Amino acid sequence: MKHPLRLLSLALAAAGALVVMGAASAHGDVVPQPVDTGNLKKLGATWLDSNPYRGNADAIHIGKAAFAQNCARCHGIDAVSGGIAPDLRKLPLQDEGDPIFQERIRHGSVRNGVTYMPSFEGVLSQEAAWAIRSWIETVHID
């Protein structure tokens, strides 16, 4: 039988390696979930500058589900951030916040080679992204 301290040491080293590996890929290891935007007006390939679905009940409903499936892991359930990522409820409302939202969802955020938020362009449709934005505005706080 191997020495118990040696086994414990190996187990702790393996656990530590898994934690480090998980931390390094925490934002990039999640498979995005598809979003059914079939009820929404199609927007085309060129991104719009402002949210065309603002106040649209169908978009808000779709956006809430899409957020839960694709964003809540980092931005918190119902957009209540636990400190891992920004609290999206504080994004400026309406056209003022749309460029900020669009930039981040399309291009993500990478600093010093570390991905803080992955790019969702080509992963989520423009319709899905604006639906998420529509829902986020319904939970806005100052």
Structure explained in plain terms:
- 22% of the residues are buried.
- The protein has a two-stranded antiparallel ribbon with strand order 1-2.
- It is globular.
- Strand 1 and strand 2 form a beta hairpin.
- It has two domains: 1-30; 33-138, Cytochrome Bc1 Complex, Chain D, domain 2.
- By secondary structure, the protein is mainly α.
- The chain has helices at residues 4-24, 57-70, 72-75, 94-107, 126-138; strands at 109-111, 114-117.
What's the gyration radius in Å?
19 Å
Number of strands: 2
Tally of alpha and pi helices: 5
What's the SSE pattern? HHHHEEH
Shape call = globular
Unreliable segments of 5+ consecutive residues: 7-27
What CATH architecture of the largest domain would you give?
Orthogonal Bundle
Look at the structure and name the CATH superfamily of the largest domain.
Cytochrome c-like domain
Q: Write down the CATH class of the largest domain.
A: Mainly Alpha
Q: Overall pLDDT, averaged?
A: 84
Q: Strand fraction band?
A: under 5%
The CATH topology of the largest domain turns out to be: Cytochrome Bc1 Complex, Chain D, domain 2
Annotate the secondary structure layout.
Elements: H1 4-24, H2 57-70, H3 72-75, H4 94-107, E1 109-111, E2 114-117, H5 126-138
Helix pairs in contact: 2-5, 4-5
